[in-house]
Amino acid sequence: MLKTLYLLYSEGYYSTSQNTTLHKDLCAKAMLLTYLLILNEATNLPETNALMALMCFHSSRFEARTSESGEIILYQDQDETLWNQELIEKGTYFLGKSSTGNTLSKYHLEAGIAYWHTQKKDSTEKWQHILELYNNLIILEYSPIVALNRTFALSKVTSKQEAIVEAEKLNLTDNHFYYSLLGNLYSNFDNAKALQHFETAIGMAKTSSDKNIIRKNIQNTIIN
Questions:
Q1: Does residue 220 come out as left (phi exceeding 0), alpha (psi in the -120 to 50 range) or beta?
Q2: For the chain, how are helix, strand and coil distributed in percent, rounded to 5?
Q3: Does domain 130-224 have CATH number 3.40.50.2300?
């Protein structure tokens, strides 16, 4: 049941079925159903609370995540004043409730990562915590996206050069996120390679939203 709700929320958070990125109605349905599980004593489990925390943290940034025209706003460009502090507080509450027992699920780890993304300040502490959580997540349940996100966190903790070495080991040449990551890592370090990777990524991206994000990265690289 939790996996189904996680997938429902994920489809709303990053839609693959339509040419848009965010479906708030799907996310709201997933959150309601998860909350109903929490209200039931038999299903009010640590991992249920962790999933609810994850949803709250992600949903707290919805209003800052898209422009009035529906275009995605990159995390570093989001207006923090638009973040829903009530949802962040609720997420923190459910994350605390999830800490009982001996279960450590991927929902716990992803909720922890999402929590640190509600802290806008780009601090060493923040990225060290995020990297540690990704290290545990990649052991618990590997996926290409987890591996790519871990590499980005690594670049924040160590250096872009070290992260590039780790990223290229992944060799995920069938994934446009792989080339987007390399583009970001090479930006302000080797802009020619960065643009080359971004061009590859935009050629592989399937949705207009993804293509628009890559175009923004290309523009930022050219400006810088």
A1: alpha
A2: 70, 0, 30
A3: no
Q: Is the Cα dihedral 91, 86, 15, 182 positive or negative?
A: negative
Domain ranges of the chain: 1-120, 130-224
Quick: pLDDT tens for 75-89.
888 999 999 999 999
Q: Could you tell me which residues are beta bridge partners of residue 72?
A: 66
- Is pTM beyond 0.85? Reply is yes
Dihedral Cα 202, 206, 152, 159, nearest 10 deg:
-10
Q: Which residues of 124-153 are buried (b: 16+ CB within 10 A; e: fewer)?
A: eebbebbbebbeebeeeeeeeebbbbbbbb
Tell me how far CA of residue 202 lies from CA of 13, 130, 215, in angstroms.
21, 27, 8
Q: How far from chain centre, in Å, is Cα 128?
A: 16
